[in-house]
Input
Amino acid sequence: MKIKLPLLTAAFYGSLLIPLVHSQGGVDGKTIFRYDTFGDEQLWTEVLQMQHALKNVSPATALSVGLKVDSDALPPDLLEALIAGRVNLNDPAVTIQLLKLNAVVGVIGKVAGANNTLATVGVTCALCHSTVDDSVAPGVGKRLDGWPNRTLNVGAIIALSPAITDKSPYLSWGPGKYDARFHAFDGRTFIQLNSPTLPAVIPPAYGLQGVGFETFTGDGPISYWNNYVGVTQMGGHGSFSDPRIGINITQKPDLVTPKLPALLAYQLSLPAPPPPAGSFDPAAAVRGQTVFNTVARCANCHVAPTYTDVLNGPTAGVPLLHTPAEDGAEPVYALRSATKMYRTTPLHGVWQHPPYFHDGSASDLPAVVDHYNTHFGLGLSAEQKSDLVEFLKSL
Output
């Protein structure tokens, strides 16, 4: 795809510093999270022409790239046929029917006419930040809002677009990753931000109550990132500006900003999922908590009850952040952010979303513990490391 680089101006979008509670939460925020495209059909339909790509995609192919089906949106006869194996998952026409039923999580497709023509395609927050419980079949079940979809291959989906000529950057991302620093969409075209692409794992959107500065690099509070993603990445018809990263996009009417408070309230209502019964050793977890708070020095930064120190800085409203060198973290992603540093990751629900670190470089919790044991020269014994993992699994 040909990339045009428009001249950018700088004006910070200060109105994003909104309260953490809003009266339009609950159902309104839930509806926005699940079903509101913010007018991003201007990207997915007009520019990427995904309506032409998806009309040839079978349910089997859609499931293979991590798209999910909301079983609650299926009529009883279709649900029964699906469970009985009487639905042809290799038929693209079935995909169109699922879109018509609004059953594909995070994808809003408008189907028109007697021929069931897919007219428009848009996406919602739920595409990346919801999954399903697989209670009907793999990839089909009840929604789990806030859970990162770590099987979703966003790059492979984008690469289906007939408008994308160089598909290699997108195909390099792999499942569960997305590069929000690669380019921005200004309502007309893509603005190249950084090259080469450097994807990060899709983070959870649960357990954020009281955390503050929720992005990997602490660029701003939740609504800052919702606005950044809603406009520059999803392609919503709205406005976003941050001179720290050289982005100033204005689109009227703004279909994103007015919905940020309700969206925030819903996200803050999503608790981190408790660990499944029997998934950790309780006695070892108790010992591991002692390791966490003492010799491993984890609690120095992962401060209970949120298990982050991002709000513990000397100045209110300014995040406490850490350089990549402090933690032995990959540095390039931070350099592409507004802060050039990382915030301490909150740990509630950490059992649920491997791989770990922003780049997914730790495949599991033992790898996380090994990283810090080596980087800080902690000298933990094998038993201490094992107990520490059990404590992390209990959070």
Remarks:
- The two ends are 44 Å apart (CA to CA).
- Residues 382-394 form the longest helix (13 residues).
- The longest strand covers residues 117-123.
- Residues 1-26 have pLDDT under 50 and may be disordered.
